[in-house]
Write a structure and sequence with these properties.
This protein has 284 residues and is an alpha+beta fold. It is 45% helix and 26% strand. The longest helix has 30 residues, at 131-160.
């Protein structure tokens, strides 16, 4: 029997890393890729070393079973960080279960004996890829799919919370997407709610009069993690908010200009009072 050491190392490491990640996620443990990779590296070293050891020494079946599954049960203890001991035990069970379900299934499907002069070489490959690499590829695909799905869901939620807004000043108007933020508690000197516009939206509306003194401005204090910062604010003639075929028309609104870019989904942050259902009227 011929053993290809490079394939054995690659196969063990990829399979261990992928299944350890699945086990940690199953018990909702804290995923730390450094711990997972170190545990997979240790499992690979033990697995490859034990395989080479068995080439030269005979191991009783009971001892062989104890070593294999003892190491399999112990590896997740290094990969996961939990507060309760029960979670460690569940992580070990999950790892062994995934080992049977995924790695075992691929091995059963794609293993084959390739004859050669030394009596045959046992391989576990599909199109030249070891089964462990296939396991890792499957988990990586699922991981990427979950990340992409989460991003699409957040994108959809952001769009669902957006409405079309039209800002009007001296006959000039600009349209943008507005997002109702319950955290926007800004008020102007009159005590009225303030909407926050992206700089590009403000520049499109005010054009060259924004900082020339023609358009009166006031300063509004904003509390941030870095302390208190000041935003320039200007009053516009009308703010029109459209949502679901209904509209809320608000006159004489104060718009603060954000010094930082807003999300790519919207250019205006609306305060909660601007989105009260009773203020919207059906527009045909």
């Amino acid at each position: 029997m011929t053993v290809y050491l490079d394939l054995l190392i690659l196969d063990n490491f990829c399979a261990d890393a992928a299944l350890l990640y699945c086990a940690v996620k199953t018990v909702k443990g804290e995923v730390r890729f450094r711990r997972i990779l170190l545990a997979a590296l240790l499992g690979t070293a033990l697995g490859v070393g034990y395989t080479i050891f068995k080439l030269y020494f005979r191991v009783p079946a009971a001892v062989d079973l104890l070593v294999k599954y003892g190491v399999a049960a112990a590896l997740p203890l290094l990969a996961v960080k939990c507060k309760r001991r029960r979670t460690y035990a569940l992580c070990s069970l999950a790892f062994v279960g995934y080992m049977f379900a995924l790695a075992g299934l691929l091995t059963a499907l794609f293993s084959k004996v390739r004859p050669n002069e030394s009596g045959g070489a046992l391989t576990y490959t599909l199109y030249g890829l070891p089964s462990g690499v296939l396991v890792l590829a499957c988990v990586a695909f699922a991981f990427g799919g979950a990340k992409a799905a989460g991003r699409f869901i957040r994108h959809g939620r952001a769009l669902a919370g957006c409405c079309t807004c039209k800002l009007v000043l001296r006959g000039q108007s600009v349209e943008t997407k507005g997002f109702v933020d319950t955290g926007n508690r800004l008020c102007d000197r009159r005590g009225r709610p303030v909407a926050v516009a992206e700089r590009a939206v403000a520049m499109a509306l005010f054009k060259e009069t924004l900082f020339t003194g023609v358009t009166p401005a006031e300063k509004i204090a904003v509390q941030t993690v870095n302390g208190i910062s000041m935003m320039a604010a200007f009053r516009i003639d009308v703010l029109e908010i459209y949502c679901g075929g209904r509209a809320n028309i608000i006159e004489d609104v104060t718009i603060a200009v954000s010094p930082q870019p807003l999300s790519g989904e919207y250019g205006l942050i609306l305060p909660p009072p601007f989105a009260r259902e009773e203020d919207f009227e059906i527009r045909r």
